[in-house]
Request: fold
Amino acid sequence: MSTPIQQSSQSSTLLGINALNSAHAGIQRCKTDVDTTAGGLATSYSSSSEDGHEFQKLLQQWDAQAQIILNKLQGLINNLSTTMRHHNATQSANTDMVRTSQSTSDSAYSQLAG
Reply:
């Protein structure tokens, strides 16, 4: 039976997930602040004026780009969470295998010693 080699570290993976969640929350806060500010400025800027129209385009472009970044961060968070689940499953399987081997070894020793 082949034993998978652990390539991930649970603590490092958890640190990565936490860092990405923090970045995601920070960008979401900025996005909300920009949306709130845009709402206030929209009443001051006439979208029928050239600068008002360009301002609206800039806000829409920024919003779309921020959403892409948020989606990518969420994808990374999901991937690291999957890695963590696989890590835990492999760790559990390896622990079970060691316990089974210990039991088999103890049984063999008992038979030879008895």
In short: The chain has a mean pLDDT of 84. Helices lie at 10-44, 50-113. The longest helix spans residues 50-113. The chain is about 85% helix and 0% strand.
